[in-house]
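ok so for the tutorial part 2 we go from a plain amino acid sequence to predicted structure tokens. step 1 is just haveing the sequence, like this:
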Amino acid sequence: MKPTKPEDTSHSELTATSVKISWTLGQDGGLEQTIHVQYRRENDTDWTTENVPASGGQTYLVIATLIPGTVYQYQLYASNEIGASETTPILYFVTPDGKPNTFLFYIYRS
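step 2 — the prediction. this is what the tokens look like for a chain of 110 residues:
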């Protein structure tokens, strides 16, 4: 049987050039499965796919090739030798622009 899609998909540890994508494994259908993490810039049409074998128990992927100040979309699905699951809903994140935060302070004197 085909696996079910990954659950509890989220992102964390966001920097200007990297993000950590995490998930919980769904049902594997009794066979070894692979998790496919797809991501792209918001206006792109093609997905970049990273494949993570679930046999090692890994439930996250760090993507470290992102562009600062960019909106990204991502989704996941699982596959085994029988077939592929549905994809998770598309989620979004925005990488910071990489510039240091600057604050402007005014000192008021009367």
